[in-house]
Amino acid sequence: MTENKVFIAEQETLLEVKEQTEKLIRNLIPTDAPIYGMVIHEASDLNPATRVEYLGANKDFKPMSMNMATHAMDYGSWADWSWLKANVPVMCGWDGEIKYYLNPDDYTKKADGTASDVSNANFAGNAMAVIKKIYKKEYKVGSDRYVYFCERQVDPDFQPVGFNVKGKVRDYMLIPMFYGSIDGNGRMRSIAGQWSCLTASGSSSDNSSGTAIGTTEQNTAILKTSASGLFFGGPLTNTLADICVMLTRSTDSQSSFGSGMCSSYVEDKAQHYGTQINKVVGGGRFYGSDDNKSFNKIFHSAVLGSYMLWQRDPYMVAVNGRIKVSTDYTYNLSGDGYLDTGCNVTANHYNATMHVVKGFGAIPSEEIEGTSATGYCDHTWVNATITAVSLRFGGCIDGLGDGLWARALHNVAADAWWHDGASLLLPAPAAA
């Protein structure tokens, strides 16, 4: 990637883009691939339950909602969305080739009802969930953020954000069903029944390998699994977070999907500081609870919904507060060659507004301060005097500061605390 800078468009240009997009929505919605959209009134409405307005084919949809008592998702009007139905659990080979499908309601079984390998550490591969390619169009008009999704590219401004892997667009990505664990061969895994990669002993310096596991060590484990292996982060996690906002018509991910293990911390290494061994969670694609100490899942991934361990995301760095990003999963811990967003973070804050970076998605903005109950409801931690490698989602000690939009930009790459985990992302095998 060549280093570039993002420049803020003139208001007239933004208004023209808005008008063009609204015309597209009114007149060009294809029946085979409708355009779904939303506008988030970021500055004028900080209430997470009312600031999202539906646009496009979903204008009159009922949003999804989680019953925290039964842990079941009411899909509202979204049950038949083909993109969502394509989100299925699988066992795949080392390089992302799908070996077989899992029962979506009971991962211990294959789709045909026979026993699966979801907890078999000797299986030559991993338990992953399919995320089908989708095209995204995103921009801001003033402080209103517009986001549209379509399963086909209806115009050049719809981009496969998160599916471009070093210049090759993939038909799907495979996200981890379980927190990343490092096996005896040094490979990053997504398998039930294994301790996460930094919690074998609950310490950064005396874990099972006897070596602190920072970003470089995590990357080594990922690449030992597959030469095409990636950190679960970057533009795909932004796309998924926005889809979650759209599905629930809310910017409070913990209230919408569950609070996971956000407050399970105990100050006792023998108890792994409140973290738990990866386990199979039933209930289908989503499972939510509000006890603050249970595994949850979003899109069949406990990593997205549980907030047990921060997840290393080296595709965003903050160099003395200046945010640089990798739009195609190019990896460089200094940020050299990354896209210079032109945006800075200076201090800890709750996100109420976002900057939009083409090809990457939303990044933190300090324009308006939120709280754990307003705006995006998630916290960003900042150290603007270092080159910080991003962490995402939150950990079991951070409570209501956690969420799909939570970021930690206050650690250097070598930091190896027990709560700084990493998980595996695999692209679909590239066509020859």
Automatic annotation (TrEMBL):
This is Uncharacterized protein. It comes from Waltera acetigignens.
